Amino acid sequence: MSTAAGADHVRQLPAGADAASPLLEISGLRVSFTLSDGRRLTAVDGINLSVAPSEAVGLAGESGSGKSTVVGAIMGLLAPNGRIDAGNIRYRGLDLVAKGAPLRRTRWREIAVVFQGSLVALNPVIKVRDQVAEAIELRLGESAEVAQEKAKHLLHDVGIPEKRLNAYPHQLSGGQRQRAMLAVALSCSPAVLIGDEPTTALDVIVQAQILELLDRMRQEYGLGLILITHDLAVIADMCDRVAIMYAGRIVESGSVKEIFSAPRHPYTQALLGAAPDARAGRRTIKVLEGHPPDLSALPPGCHFAPRCPLADARCREEDPPTIEYADRVTLACHRYSLGDGKPPTPIDAPYPTLELGKR
Amino acid sequence: MKARRWLLGRLGGAIATILMVLLLNFVLFRLMPGSPDRALARNPRVSAAAMEAARVRWGLDKPIFPDQLIAYVGATLKGDFGYSVKYGGREVTSVIGEKIGPTLLIVGLGEIIALAAGIALGAWTGWRRGRFGDRVGTLGALILYSMPYFWLGMLLITLFATTLGWLPTSGISTPGGPGGIEGAIDLLRHAALPIATIALGLIGQYAILLRSSVAESLREGYVLTARAKGLRDERILRGHILPNALLPTVTLAALNAGYVIGGALTVEIVFSWPGLGLLTQEALQSRDYPILQGVFLLLSVSVVMANLLADLLYSRLDPRVRHGAAR
Amino acid sequence: MSASASVNLSTRIRKRVSGGNRIALLLLRRWDARIAIMIVSLLTLSGVAPETLVGPLQTATTATADALLPPSGTHLFGTDDLGRDLLNLTVHGARISLVVGALSAAITLVIGGGIGMIAGYRGGRVDALLMRVADTFLILPTFVLALILAPILRELIGDQTEIFGIRTTLLTIVAVIGFTSWSSTARIVRSQTLSLRERTFVERARLVGLSPMRIIARHIFPNIRTVLVANGIVVIAGSILTESTLSFIGLGDPFQPSWGTILGNAQSAAAPSLGAWWFIAAPGCAILITVVACTIIGNAIDELLDRDVRVQR
Ligand SMILES: Nc1ncnc2c1ncn2[C@@H]1O[C@H](COP(=O)(O)OP(=O)(O)O)[C@@H](O)[C@H]1O
Ligand code: SF4
Ligand SMILES: [Mg+2]
Questions:
Q1: Residues of chain C with pLDDT > 70: what percent?
Q2: Which residues surround ligand 3, an ion (CB under 5 A)?
Q3: Which residues in chain B have Cβ-Cβ distances shorter than 8 Å to C272?
Q4: Is B65 helix (H, G, I), strand (E, B) or coil?
Q5: CATH of A3-239, one of 3.30.565.10, 3.40.50.300, 3.40.640.10, 3.40.1350.10
Q6: Do the Cβ atoms of A113 and B235 come within 8 Å?
Q7: What is the mean pLDDT of residues B265-277?
Q8: Which residues of chain C are modeled with pLDDT < 70?
């Protein structure tokens, strides 16, 4: 299969960028929103995240934990009431947070997004082919004919049948729409692709197809992929590394292999234990009680304390520090401390369990 | 398939509306002071023979329901609207027919100018919603929208015709004026203020409508995508928001056409512009009901047609409707 | 005017409405609404007691000044073609314009609210039929219909009587405006009723066996009151505009002149081509200010209701 629009295109970095710097690196990012009554809500509270070419990083967390806000900060597209309070976002060394950041150059050409819900993310009154061609023409400066030709190749590449080239979004199935959205995202051959819950609302089979396509595109184009989802199984299949978010903070991060085989943070344990695992023959599931906290009225201490079986007085008073016990492997929980440089031993949080009936 | 059914439904609705207008007109005709008989008899200019013919045509010797109703609807559909009281017993259709042209000229041109300007203003304010420019623009639109057309017209005459003397105060042409090209220019000079009045009165409405649908579109996912694509604001507005935001505006504008025409009629009175509005006022003063009913029927049918046209346009513009997907 | 202003309103579907008092409080926090409410209160005041403010209404016989005097110290707004003081006329006009506007709006709300609630509550064929009629009235040039109806009605009733001190000429205008402008209110109320019908407290009332009329009166109406108020204010604005247009054309009452009647006189006196701008300015500005203020209040309530829904969801 050809990679018509992309891989052979020689990547030219925007001015001021530096090929030796990390592809995308977020450090200490804090984002808050002003509410209508004047209070501020901290949606993202000091997170670190990075992605390298051809690498897939998963960002997981319940809905409302701040995942989409991270995307908004990266693209410079926070809602008007949102503000980046602290931290850095660097693309190849280029500061994307500073005033006058070259967002007009990095958007889509360097970093593209597949938003959640293709039905709303695509314009309902424009043909999908034109939506793919648009950025090629306007951002890469190609002629209309070239753009249309490339759009055709891209749509073919993501698996849209020839006869659907001139379709409007509503004429496509949910899966096809998400494929088309992927084609739109790849139209300027970005170096980083962010998928914000790209398969939510699709049925399982279509979901698997889209994920496979995403994986293929990552390999073909050498994309750095940030995959946002609340489905840990997807991350297990697709990603090299994972970061677990809770109430605006990353509570644990590291390689998928490490985190999934030996989850340490009580929240990670709850997430991983919340689904029965047929392959492992596990029939008991962990029950996480309560709700995520109200971000506009956070109590001091660990955000997870109200729901944590291991919480003690200190947890309710002091923020747990984030420790990095190996390269890019972090953990934020009072129960663990940086010992002798070896990974800390997992402590099993005593969640109530539920036995699933035998079939 | 679904799209066709949708359009057929619209067509059915339009026909039902026109039938209801006919029924309304029929009832009004009976309500009129004195029976239609006497209304005719009061009209000294209608000859006895013509009156007898009308009696038979309208079935006035038969029971009101259903015979007279059927006869009335039948006659109306054939274009027989009766006789004008004031205009020497002339047929209503011919009296009205003469006045359509002048009205169409000022309403049509006013409407086009207002659409263009209203869309521009609405898009501009909607895009800046909440900011200073929006506040000022929206207040301006609200003020224009709240002015009675006739008052706006009077103000324009006072300023541009009387005080500054740039344009004529009233009428459609200079009496005994030149013909040819110069005559056309003379006509345009007379039409300028009426057109401006209608346009100004309408701009506010279009601007307000478009502003709210643009502001609503700004929250849509596809706008976020367009921004993420790194497109320029102007491109996002023109290429992505307007094609969507114009759709409800088309519908609402058509819905309001009836109101607009009503207001536009008063403009003619202010400018002594010899169209349907002036005719209506004269008819009102001489209680010339057949003319009034004829004007009402004509305007109703025009408005229903405008709505049908808007529906067709909508189905052209919105691929979802064109392909029969849910709206 | 009422048609299009309320279409704006009806495009937003509200799920639930509550706390009319709270809305009133929130309204007072908005500066634009505050100014608008102040203006409307002042106008109402002059409508209630014009005699105390400017003395009795001047007529052709009681007028003392010269004709068409521009504004001056003695005649702040100038005089008309009969030498009447325009300040006097405009303040007295407030009473007629506001009373006719408010009464017409009341009729509009009764007809529109009633039809809307019945259509929404009964559903099915009744709903379909009523909404068909409503749509027709929404589309039609109802202003022209009003033009025909007003004189017919007047000739039927005769115009030499008074009811509650209001001459029947004006009452026919009230009736005609009410009859021709209820449709957008009906649409809004219907959509509210539709969603209320599915709510548990209405269902419970139905199960208990309350009659439809009782359910509408006890459970539906109290919940759409705030929406009706918001719509009512916009409808008043529309009614005042329609009234002024009808009066301008000559359907008003020369003995109880409204702002529109004064403007009609100005037109007959050729004020625009005489350059007598003051003859046009005072009554016209009065209409404009009233309509703008009412629209601002109506829209503000509407926005607050909208936000209410968003918060509650
Ligand atoms: N524009 C906004 N104004 C106020 N709060 C917001 C806004 N956008 C998001 N939030 C809040 O920020 C938190 C994180 O939201 P989001 O990033 O969308 O979470 P996720 O994508 O993980 O579901 C939520 O509590 C949400 O309510
Ligand atoms: S810090 Fe305390 S409360 Fe938070 S996760 Fe660790 S043990 Fe639980
Ligand atoms: Mg999200």
A1: 86
A2: A 68
A3: 154-155, 157-158, 161-162, 169, 270
A4: helix
A5: 3.40.50.300
A6: no
A7: 90
A8: 1-22, 60, 63, 65, 67-68, 158-161, 163-165, 306-313
With beta carbons less than 8 A apart as the criterion, state whether B42 and B33 touch.
no
For residue B146, give the 3-state DSSP assignment: helix
Beta strands at A82-91 and A249-255: parallel, antiparallel or unpaired: unpaired
Give the tokens for residue A157: 């590449």
Residue A354: pLDDT over 50: yes
Question: Any idea which ligand is nearest the CA of A77?
Answer: 1
| Architecture (CATH level 2) of domain C26-312 | Orthogonal Bundle (1.10)
Under a CB-based contact definition with an 8 Å cutoff, are residues B55 and B48 in contact? no
Owner of token pair 């895009």: B127
Q: Are B213 and B249 in contact (CB under 8 A)?
A: yes
H or E segment and range at residue C63: none
- CB A182 within 8 Å of CB A155: no
Q: In a 10 Å sphere around its CB, with 0-12 CB exposed, 13-18 middle and 19+ buried, how is residue A89 labelled? A: buried
Query: Which residues, in sequence order, are bridge partners of residue A114?
Result: A195
Q: Which two tokens stand for residue B206?
A: 């279009």
CA C86 from centre of chain: 24
Verdict on whether the full-model pTM lies above 0.90: no
How does pLDDT run across A218-243, given as a tens digit for each residue?
999 899 999 999 889 899 999 999 99
Cα–Cα–Cα angle for B52, B58, B64, rounded to 5 degrees: 120
- Report chain B's mean pLDDT, rounded to a whole number: 82
**Min distance C124 CA to chain B CA atoms (Å):** 17
- Residue A275 touches chain B, beta carbons under 8 Å: no
Residue C158, judged by CB atoms within 10 A of its CB (0-12, 13-18, 19+), counts as exposed
| Residue ranges of domains in chain A | 3-239, 266-346
Measure B228 CA to nearest chain A CA, in Å: 6
Distance from CA of A132 to the nearest CA of B (A): 10
* Gap between the Cα atoms of B240 and B252, Å rounded: 20
pLDDT digits (tens, 9 = 90+) for A5-31: 444 455 678 888 888 889 999 999 999
User: Who lines ligand 1 at CB under 6 A?
Assistant: A 33, 35, 41, 43, 61, 63-69, 79, 81-82, 295
A122 to B225: CB separation less than 8 angstroms, yes or no: yes
What are the chain B neighbours of A104 within 8 Å (beta carbons)? 230
Pairing of strands A249-255, A192-196: unpaired
SS (H, E, C) chain A: CCCCCCCCCCCCCCCCCCCCCCCEEEEEEEEEEECCCCCEEEEEEEEEEEECCCCEEEEECCCCCCHHHHHHHHHCCCCCCEEEEEEEEEECCEECCCCCCCHHHHECCCEEEECCCHHHHCCCCCCHHHHHHHHHHHHHCCCHHHHHHHHHHHHHHCCCCHHHCCCCHHHCCHHHHHHHHHHHHHCCCCCEEEEECCCCCCCHHHHHHHHHHHHHHHHHHCCEEEEEECCHHHHHHHCCEEEEEECCEEEEEEEHHHHHHCCCCHHHHHHHHCCCECCCCECEEECCCCCCCCHHHCCCCCCCHHHCCCCCHHHHHCCCCCEEEECCEEECCCCCCCCCCCCCCCCCCCCCEEECCCC
The residue whose CA is least distant from atom 27 of ligand 1 is: A64
Q: Which residues of B touch A121 (CB under 8 A)?
A: 221-222, 224-225
pLDDT in tens, A166-225: 999 999 988 899 999 999 999 999 999 999 998 887 888 888 988 999 999 899 989 999
pLDDT of residue A91: 93
Atom 1 (ligand 2): residue with closest C-alpha? Answer: A333
Task: For chain C, give every domain's residue range.
Answer: 26-312
Please tell me the distance between residue A69's alpha carbon and the centre of ligand 3 in angstroms.
7
Q: What is the ipTM of this complex?
A: 0.87
